[in-house]
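Notes from hallway chat w/ T.B., transcribed later so I don't forget. T.B. wanted the structure written out for a chain they're using in a teaching module, and asked if we could keep both sequence and structure tokens in one place. Agreed to drop them here.
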Amino acid sequence: MNKFFKENKVFLVLLFLSVAIRLVNINMPILEGTATRQIQTAMIARNFYTNGFNFFYPQVDFLGPGPGYLVLEFPLMNLIAAVFYVLCGGVHEWIGRLISISFFAGSVIFLFNLVRKLFEERTALITIVIYSISPLGLIYSRAFMPDFEMLFFFIGALYFMYLWSVGDKDRFFWVSALFAMMALLTKIQSFCICIPLLAMIWQRQRLSFLFKVRSWAYLLIVLIPVILWYIHAGSVHKVDSEYGAHAFKISYWLRPSLLISPKYLIKVFELGWMPMLTPVGFTLFLFGLFLKTESKQGTILWSWLAGTVVYMIVFCTHIDELYYNLFFLPIMSIFAAITIVWIWQYASKEMIFLHNRFALIMCIIFLIVLIGRYAGYAYTVPRGYRHIPVLAKTIEQMTDKKDLIVTSLPDGHATHYYSHRKGWSLGLPGNDPEKTKKAIARIEDLRQRGAKYFVSVCEDFLMQSTDFRQYMQRRYRVVKEESGLYSIFLLE
């Protein structure tokens, strides 16, 4: 054990620090990052805890008075959180954050070992530093979301396949299959893993892999549970849910016209330039694309990068949602690390400032400020959402537990969650006349179905929906409001 710590001392220190910075303010409400996605994860976990561990039928509270089934990805993270709720004697959001951080730590371990085997320890250490301090990674690795669960299984599948591809024990082949299966169950977007996996199989077996039973067994292990799960999910949404069925339509994800839109391509560039790696890290990544690597290294890295490009094409409609870009983070971190090692080895003599202590200190301060500029969002609730826990407490005090409420988006789901009330969420229409008519018809329909209150969660959005606001004020009585924050209408 002492030998292990001695040989991996630097790595373990970096791993400890990367986890420690994610534990800061771990008790804050789950309203930063993508609040809607965090609330959905937490809501399912809480319903497992209160209603029973039926993981085939995850439930949420914003689909009306019924069971509210919402079946998308396999709810492993939700189940783990619910088990810990039982062990800890109640619901605590920090448990969900801690599970996400644990998956992040596992992904760091796999990434470090994979890069160390592909290159050497220095490149691996730099890779995990970049991966760990990425603003995007900081925000979502401590969020109550399954995205780093997916990265854990994704990178793990690649790592074990690599061990097998270089002639190691056959058991790694089957472990890789299990990890790939879990990656796809966690997020179907993980399909892009097939390209680097095929590249590694090709390196060991060439075309002969097509004629081996083992290869087809791998495919069946990965695909059969995934296909069965998503068939089940689709059937539940078709029969039992009014929410989420759009996720099973190809048009919801793929829109080829975006790929030739200059505005869209500029946005993709900006996402990498700013929250992904900051301008410094993104420049290092771009430079790393032009550096020469050995044949075996290059095949794996470029096939991995090709997989992420295919992912970007297939899921192009969602690239502007920041957490959908986490797929790019590991491979971009590797290319950026390759650039830093190259500078270290070949260009540092020409870069005089690297030998000046004051200049180095200023560079480090600049990087900390730059990372903090984007990553500070991970540690604070956005100003427009800070009142939601107080609003939820108000709703809890003034309503009956069985009262159904309609909440406005954003973020009505959080209001349902923190107030422990069921109901529906409604997107406000803005000043679009057609959308206003639909919103009015929707609120009247929900009132007929038992909704007792309408809650304008973020007043700014209601103010932007002039006709809808005027209709609500004429038709219903405001029973509670905080100027500039929220309004609660009694639907009677």
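Follow-up for T.B.: The first strand starts at residue 404 and ends at 409. Might be a good example for the class.
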